[in-house]
Structures are given as C-alpha cells and as structure tokens.
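Comment thread on ticket #2218

A.B. wrote:
> Attaching the input chain for the structure job we discussed in standup.
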Amino acid sequence: MKKTFVAVALFLLVLSTAQAQKLTGAGATFPYPMYSKWFSEYSAAHPGVEINYQSIGSGGGIKQVTTGTVDFGASDMPMADDALAASKIKLVHIPSVLGAVVPVFNVPGVSDLRFSPDTLANIYLGKIVSWSDPAIAKDNPGVKLVDQKIIVVHRSDGSGTSFIWTDYLSKVSPEWKSSVGAGTAPNWPTGVGGKGNEGVAGYVRQLPGAIGYVELIYALQNKISYGSIRNSSGAWVKGSIEGVTAAAAAVKMPADFRVSITNAPGATSYPIASFTWLLIPTHPTNAANEKVLKDMLNWILTSGEGEASSLSYAPLPKAVSDAALKVVYSLP
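C.D. wrote:
> Ran it. Output below, let me know if you need it in another format.
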C-alpha cells in the first residue's frame, strides 16, 4: 500500500510539472520592482503558472522578443516604426504603469537640490564639472555647495530609462539634441556607466560627488537624495505619483499607445516621466502560453494597477487601461 501511494504521488508530481505553464519575459529595469510583485502574485493566485522575467534593460528585451526568444518583452522606449516593421515577430505595445526618472546625487552635506533644464544638460554634456559651479548655485540660493568634482553616472546597457532621460534632455537643450540626441545607448559625452537602474543607484551611493538618474522607486529603496526639476511651466517639481499622473493627463494618447510624455505642459507635471510598455506578440507560437499571457495582461490591467502606487509608480488612467484591455481582447 505504501509503495502504491508513493508511486501515485510521484506520478501526480510529474503530471503537474509537465502541465505547468511557463512564461518568459525580458527587458526594462525601470518597472522591475512592479513586475516582480505582479508576476509573483499572479503565479501565487494561479497554481501551475510560472513567470520568469529577466531585468536586462529595454534594449535587451526588444532584441529578445523580436527574435522570438521570450514570450513577451518590456521597454520604457516605444519601438520606432522601422524597428516594428523589421521584427520577424509582430508586436503590440501594452502600457503597464507610469513612472518618474529622477536625478539622484551624493553631495556631502546636501540633501536637497534643484536642477534647471540647462544645468542638468550641461552636467551631462561635461560642461559643468564642479558642484560649486555658479549655475548650480543660481538654481539653489542659500544652499552651501562644496567645491567637489561631479562624477556623472549613466547606464552602460541599452536602457529605456536612458531613453527617457535623453528624450527629455533633447527637448530642453538644443545642444544635447544636436550633439547626442535621444536613445537607449547614446554616445555619452562624459561619465561612468552602471548596469541597470540598480547599477546606477549603487554607483551614486558609493561615490561622493556623483549624480545619476534612476526610476523613483530605486531612489526611495536605496535612500538616495534626488532633486527637483524646473518644469515647462517654470515650477520646481520633484518626482512623484501626482506629477507623473499630471504629465500623462496633459498628453493625448495615440491608438497604438506609443507616446512620449517628457517635458509635458502643466504647472504640476513632472517633466521626466514615462509610460512603460509590455511588448506582446500578436500571434504567439505557443497556444497554451498565449492563453496564459492574455489572462495575465487582463489581471494586470484590472487588478494589478491598484497596487502601482504602493511602489511609487502611477497607475494607468482608466481610459488608457480600458483601451489597452480592448487590444488584449482582440489578440487571437
């Protein structure tokens, strides 16, 4: 009897393992804390479903999903028309959440700073090299600044967070636009590179005098100071859920969801904000995974959004999540 019981148990274990649905995804580090929470909760609520997401940067995620290596990709940069046309896997963009990219800094004795658009661009252009520079002092009257070299930190990998950052700088600085431009892996004029939002946050924490850029949750989790930015209306604003939501509300969403909301109008809009997208094949090759993927997207857009603010992301506006659901329902 005991042997029979063991044999049946082993058979059931093998059967359940064989029937497990495994989804693989890869891409953006910007939303990784949110995705990690969502995928864990979805798997817990759906026994037999495993979701493996690799936080490798938007560039890597786009490469893997367009070559069919993963079931879905993730990017903080909407794919360009030519990239979509060239992909052997036809894709749709499904927005998931919104977030803020904030300038983090490690300046001894200083916990709060303001950065005007010109000052921020000139720091990353390598034209402002000391924290005591008159331009920084002008942005921060009354703040005692140290005469210390600025260490510029940027991403070393293909990054949607870098795209958001450089997309903003391209809008506010003609020199940046003409000499560097917007991209996931630009030719940085100066600085050292860190891999992922985690790597940039780590460098800034370790290096006195450093400045970098990360998604808001990475600044909060690592307890790194981050600055205010003067927005297009002239108001000084810090990265926040409210500021990101205001930026999204100020920009019209196109039918394919590919939109930039950096430097958005509005007195309360945070200027370095973005949607982040899941890149979903329109015709998945694995029918079983297709069903799970659609159900997961439905769960994210209906239940998951309510958890976004707990990790300092902004949930999708209801009109956007409703429109995204229609696209999900229309998938084969």
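A.B. wrote:
> Thanks. Noting for the ticket: The longest strand covers residues 91-105.
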